């Protein structure tokens, strides 16, 4: 091998090994950092893991939001109009958070079956129901259209307005 | 009414622009392939014409917005008669159709600039470059006309008033962020076109890199500013003080930036040393492809965010096909042509060449990890394997260590020499700076906060390791018999550009480190008369009032802020607005900015008993984030002003013209 060829070989070997390490590390980091999405139907069915970060979403149930009078603690119920799940959060809710509107929370499911949320995202959808939730309903054997109509009806009754935007809050 | 036909004129101008782009894409390329000067000569007038007609189309749309022509769907959906005029003008790109039109206009602008400033290019090279840009333009103009016509009418039932611009976008940040970002995205099409032209012509000498370098630097500088503006906008507009979320939409702009950063460094090697030729071409193709992918991700509605204006599957498919064709054809061309033009130039493992190779490898690895984290959830979703999201921990876990590694080599870069250098010499030049960085970095958190913090120390060490060896190098280089000023003048602008750019990275690193580790956030319940202390500042709510703005109603709080026991105080007034047309609530943050700290007050929600949930934040060094980005961009621009690029401009002067013609004849 000429020195030039050898240099080329080293470059290629170095590239390949670096790329392999990078992909390995990346996949490892991905495995431990992906958050799966669960809808109330799936949580009620026992599909969701306990004490692991997950995302859950649905509609904020009418009349379920209760604020503590002294602190910033808040509890509300997320529903897909089949099953419900209770969410507790401490902090400021996003501007677009409203009863009857779609919401996605990031947090952990406790053994008692409620979610301790670290982040609440309010997201407005023209169909009122987040697409992931509609999908989960369909997978569970329900017709999402019926529930979407219901969601729309509740949202209109509660008087919330629809936009196309998201906003988010963390604590 | 004479305003009635404006949208139709715009639409018509758009069609003419598409036809001109088609001619510009086909004729010069065919002419270069068959060596027909007449065909090649189509390139420049078509580029001018296309720019002109797109400008007309764009102005027509802007006019419709300013004149409140709600019979145009686009205007009706995104404007309102109550909107101030400057938001009406910027609302043009606050929606899908308008923003793609702006994208096309900027592309035509870059094409026009290339045709104007590159007259000394060999004729066939210029023809190919403009031809490739014309083809890209055809793709985008077809996209606008077929799937996203901004001039579509709402007739005969036109609304009385518009639905208003999304309140999040009614802001100075929005006026400047998208055009800057697009200037960057689209600017990479120039280096892409140069690379493709070089491949087509089989002439991959260092010359094309010299022509392409200034364009790439400018595009990169715009992209840097665009990303920084986006981060700044998110910081004060979204109301909770975050400046980077690893949101897919942000990643979409970061990806071409990372690849572009690798590209500007690899272009330097190719220009100076003639090596890395194929690699540079590949990077040029990748950078522009990532720009296109960014556009696809943001505009296709694959992602739900403030940027995803519409969920029309046909649009996503169109951009995906466009992306596939661009990437596929370019890579095919690369595979066919690259081996023929590659040419190995040897270098030692201890040299600037090798350090820049490492820089490129690391940047590409970072790009790939960010790309994987961004695209992986979309792929899984597309394959119906579940809905997942990849959170910031993933990106931080990979991005931060890789960046630290990158910076370790970055400190050595400016000290090193091309081709080969003595290891002892490199050590002699850098050990003192390294030691100083370690010592200062080690004690910095102690001095700043009285408590040691590993992460802060690491951040400061890395930043100093970038700055100190460079400062020492600068000190040596400016030594001159006629005094230091003469020494400073002797250095090239390109060198100063590098210094500024690297300094910018260090400044940003300091900002990220300090604000990530020392920011304080308190969410509290506050009523009139309540006081809260955060980081030595006392916040007292003195008043709650309602007021009315041009298109919104607001609850405003008046917060009196006093530092420690000092007698001076100032007032901050955060607001919670309700935008009337959309019924959409918005948080208007009150900021007290400073070089070393920001105070950040936002109103959360109204609680019973007349009190509010308030978010009070202390953000040290947060401005350094964006200051660093501005320095980087300034460095990029300064390097373009270097003498060796100006010489080519001088060649266009009357005396210089024969020389240019002679060069063209020999080419």
UniProtKB/TrEMBL annotation, chain A:
Membrane topology: Single-pass type II membrane protein
InterPro entries: CcmE, CcmE-like_sf, NA-bd_OB-fold
Transmembrane segments: none
Subcellular location: Cell inner membrane; Cell membrane
Entry keyword set: Cell inner membrane, Cell membrane, Cytochrome c-type biogenesis, Heme, Iron, Membrane, Metal-binding, Signal-anchor, Transmembrane, Transmembrane helix
Species classification: Bacteria, Pseudomonadati, Pseudomonadota, Gammaproteobacteria, Oceanospirillales
Keyword Cell membrane: yes
SUPFAM superfamilies, sorted: Heme chaperone CcmE
Gene that encodes the chain: ccmE
The protein's name: Cytochrome c-type biogenesis protein CcmE
PANTHER family reported in the protein's UniProt record: CYTOCHROME C-TYPE BIOGENESIS PROTEIN CCME HOMOLOG, MITOCHONDRIAL
UniProtKB/TrEMBL annotation, chain B:
Stretches assigned to the Cytochrome c assembly protein domain: 93-300
UniProt keyword annotations, A-Z: Cell inner membrane, Cell membrane, Cytochrome c-type biogenesis, Membrane, Transmembrane, Transmembrane helix
Domain Cytochrome c-type biogenesis protein CcmF C-terminal: from-to ranges: 320-643
Transmembrane parts of this sequence: 12-34, 46-67, 100-118, 125-146, 182-202, 214-234, 254-270, 279-297, 317-336, 357-379, 399-418, 430-448, 454-472, 493-520, 621-641
Intracellular or extracellular location(s): Cell inner membrane
Highest taxon above the source species: Bacteria
InterPro entries reported in the protein's UniProt record: CcmF_C (IPR032523), Cyt_c_assembly (IPR002541), Cyt_c_biogenesis (IPR003567), Cyt_c_biogenesis_CcmF (IPR003568)
Family to which the UniProt record says this protein belongs: Belongs to the CcmF/CycK/Ccl1/NrfE/CcsA family.
The name this protein goes by in its record: Cytochrome c-type biogenesis protein CcmF
Species this protein is from: Halomonas korlensis
């Amino acid at each position: 091998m000429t020195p030039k060829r050898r240099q080329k070989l080293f470059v290629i070997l170095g590239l390949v090994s670096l790329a392999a390490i990078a992909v390995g590390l990346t996949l490892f980091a991905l495995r431990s950092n992906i958050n799966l999405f669960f809808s109330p139907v799936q949580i009620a069915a026992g599909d969701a893991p306990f004490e692991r970060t997950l995302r859950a979403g649905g509609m904020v149930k009418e009349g379920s939001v209760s604020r503590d009078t002294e602190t910033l603690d808040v509890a509300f119920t997320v529903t897909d109009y089949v099953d419900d799940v209770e969410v507790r959060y401490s902090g400021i809710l996003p501007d677009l958070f409203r009863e009857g509107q779609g919401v996605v929370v990031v947090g952990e499911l406790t053994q008692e079956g409620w979610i301790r949320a670290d982040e609440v995202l309010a997201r407005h959808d023209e169909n009122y129901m987040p697409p992931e939730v509609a999908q989960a309903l369909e997978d569970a054997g329900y017709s999402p259209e019926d529930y979407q109509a219901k969601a729309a009806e509740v949202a209109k009754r509660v008087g919330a307005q629809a936009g196309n935007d998201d906003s988010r809050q963390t604590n | 009414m004479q305003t009635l036909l404006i949208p139709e004129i715009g639409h018509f101008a758009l069609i003419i622009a598409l036809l001109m782009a088609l001619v510009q894409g086909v004729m010069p390329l065919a002419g270069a392939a068959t060596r027909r000067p007449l065909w090649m000569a189509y390139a420049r007038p078509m580029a001018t014409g296309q720019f002109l007609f797109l400008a007309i189309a764009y102005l027509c749309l802007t006019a419709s917005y300013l004149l409140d022509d709600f019979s145009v769907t686009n205007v009706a959906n995104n404007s309102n008669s109550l909107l101030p005029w400057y938001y009406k003008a910027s609302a043009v790109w606050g929606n899908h159709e308008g923003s793609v039109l702006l994208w096309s206009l900027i592309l035509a602008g870059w094409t026009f600039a290339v045709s104007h400033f590159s007259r000394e290019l060999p004729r066939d090279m210029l023809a190919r470059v403009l031809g490739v840009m014309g083809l890209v333009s055809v793709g985008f103009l077809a996209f606008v006309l077929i799937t996203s016509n901004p001039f579509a009418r709402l007739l005969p039932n036109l609304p009385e008033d518009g639905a208003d611009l999304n309140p999040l976008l009614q802001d100075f940040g929005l006026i400047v962020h998208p055009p800057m970002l697009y200037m960057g995205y689209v600017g990479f099409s120039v280096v892409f076109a140069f690379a493709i032209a070089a491949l087509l012509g089989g002439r991959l000498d260092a010359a094309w890199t010299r022509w392409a370098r200034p364009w790439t630097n400018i595009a990169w500088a715009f992209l840097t500013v665009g990303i920084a503006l986006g981060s700044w906008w998110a910081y004060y507009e979204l109301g909770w003080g975050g400046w980077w979320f690893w949101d897919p939409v942000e990643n979409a702009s970061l990806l071409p930036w990372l690849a572009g950063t690798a590209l500007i460094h690899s272009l330097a090697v190719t220009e100076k040393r003639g090596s890395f030729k194929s690699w540079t071409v590949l990077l040029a193709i990748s950078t522009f492809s990532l720009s296109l992918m960014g556009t696809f991700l943001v505009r296709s509605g694959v992602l739900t965010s403030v940027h995803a204006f519409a969920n029309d599957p046909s649009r996503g498919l169109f951009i995906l096909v466009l992306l596939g064709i661009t990437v596929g054809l370019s890579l095919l061309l690369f595979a066919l042509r690259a081996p023929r033009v590659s040419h190995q130039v040897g270098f030692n493992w201890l040299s600037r060449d090798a350090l820049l190779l490492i820089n490129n490898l690391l940047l590409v690895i970072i790009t790939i990890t960010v790309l994987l984290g961004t695209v992986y959830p979309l792929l899984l979703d597309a394959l119906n394997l579940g809905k997942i999201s990849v959170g910031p921990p993933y990106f931080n876990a990979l991005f931060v260590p890789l960046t630290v590694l990158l910076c370790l080599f970055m400190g050595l870069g400016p000290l090193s020499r091309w081709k080969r250098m003595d290891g002892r010499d490199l050590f002699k030049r850098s050990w003192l700076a390294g030691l100083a960085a370690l010592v200062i970095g080690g004690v910095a958190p102690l001095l700043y906060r009285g408590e040691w913090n590993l992460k802060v120390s690491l951040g400061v060490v890395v930043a100093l390791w970038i700055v100190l060896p460079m400062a020492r190098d600068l000190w040596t280089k400016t030594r001159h018999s006629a005094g230091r000023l003469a020494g400073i003048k002797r250095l090239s602008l390109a060198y100063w550009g590098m210094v500024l750019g690297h300094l910018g990275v260090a400044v940003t690193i300091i900002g990220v480190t300090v604000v990530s580790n020392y920011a304080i956030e308190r969410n509290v319940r506050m009523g009139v008369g309540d006081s809260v202390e955060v980081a030595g500042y006392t916040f007292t709510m003195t008043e709650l009032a309602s007021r009315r703005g041009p298109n919104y109603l607001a609850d405003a709080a008046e917060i009196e802020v006093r530092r420690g026991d000092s007698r001076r105080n100032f007032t901050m007034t955060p607001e919670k607005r309700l935008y009337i047309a959309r019924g959409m609530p918005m948080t208007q943050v009150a900021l007290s900015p400073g070089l070393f700290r920001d105070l950040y007050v936002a109103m959360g929600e109204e609680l019973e008993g007349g009190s509010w949930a308030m978010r009070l934040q202390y953000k040290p060094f947060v401005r350094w984030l964006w200051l660093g980005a501005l320095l980087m961009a300034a460095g990029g621009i300064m390097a373009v002003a270097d003498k060796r690029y100006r010489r080519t401009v001088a060649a266009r002067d009357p005396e210089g013209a024969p020389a240019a013609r002679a060069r063209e004849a020999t080419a």
